[in-house]
Amino acid sequence: MRKFFFLLASIAAFHLADAQNSQQGEDVLQLKETSHDFGKIPQGKPVYYTFEIVNAGKSPLKLDDVHATCGCTTPEWSRDPIAPGASVPIKVGYNAAAEGPFEKPITITYNGNQSKLLTIKGTVWKAPEGSAPANASINLLKKQTF
To answer: pTM for the full model?
Structure first.
């Protein structure tokens, strides 16, 4: 009976230690925000937003990869290790080529197999083609003297 309780206590201690290690690994990279809404943006005009990440760990942190699901979204980040307590930017660009709503995920991979997700979203409106129409009343104002 003692062996059974010892085995049960050992298993519980192992799972508790494993859960604490997993939780610590997840908390090493902290995001100040996980999504950004651009709102309405004009078609054909790239937009950019900078997310900030913080190394909350006690040792340098290196981002393994930052990637988007399509070529219209381009993340830029430093490949240098992030010192403990330091924050670094991840600049995300979106090329607003297609009209309509969009939502794009960006995956940050770090520590070999851990990841966090960023999201950008908004609505692309079609920019008018050509220049604005001429204002006929401007000529009338030019002819008047005050």
So the answer is: 0.69
